[in-house]
Amino acid sequence: MADFNDAKILDSWAKNTAPWIRAVQEKQIESRRLVTDQAIVDVICGFEADSVLDIGCGEGWLARELSAQGMSVTGIDVIPGFIENARTSCKGTFHLLAYEALSVRQLGETFDLAVCNFSLLGDEPVSRLFSVLPELINPGGWFVMQTLHPGLMADSQYYDGWREGSWDGFSDQFCDPAPWYFRTLETWFSLFDTNGLSVRLIKEPRHPATGAATSLIIAGRVTEGTSRKTDRI
């Protein structure tokens, strides 16, 4: 798996920006259309959050949904085409920014809630992101993530590591699928706990026809006394 790395993820998304924007805007992805889009919106709306940081915002669909609910949204993404589309189609502020560069100094503000919706795909950038989340979220605020359910990989490969990507079920306009870094449920919980995020909510949205879990949503709250290093960023 020598070719599976964080740089390869970015390379793939840069190549597939246009077809992805089309797929999202035309609601071509069944699991998103039937389950996961509404699931993440419902969870976020269940918290008292006036300001939201959408990390890995893509073309901006979640920012549009949350803005319609009256929230002030800031989005970041490292793919220029996604940020360009978000800026032209959404209310809010959008930054072309890699996870590794994310800081309060870069954004100039903190937020009531941060969200990663199917945007935690890599290895080292994800670990680094968790370490800075408490600095970006206001005291008592929330971090919400939605990802593929680890149980979908409940076989001989149920261990942390790189997995081969696929565009199965997508149009033939997609090419060169991105790899992704799989984490077990235990590893996800550890990332929350070791970075001062107390897990308060777990949801497993299910497909209405099959009953199978389509994703995993975890929400953690910034614990009291968590170190905030904004003055040193």
TrEMBL record:
Domain of life from the UniProt record: Bacteria
BP GO annotations: methylation
Signal sequence range: none
MF GO annotations: methyltransferase activity
Gene3D superfamilies: Vaccinia Virus protein VP39
Assigned keywords, A-Z: Methyltransferase, S-adenosyl-L-methionine, Transferase
The keyword RNA-binding is annotated on this UniProt entry: no
Residue ranges occupied by any Methyltransferase domain in the UniProt entry: 52-141
Annotated PANTHER family: METHYLTRANSFERASE, UBIQUINONE BIOSYNTHESIS O-METHYLTRANSFERASE, MITOCHONDRIAL
The protein's name in its UniProt record: Class I SAM-dependent methyltransferase
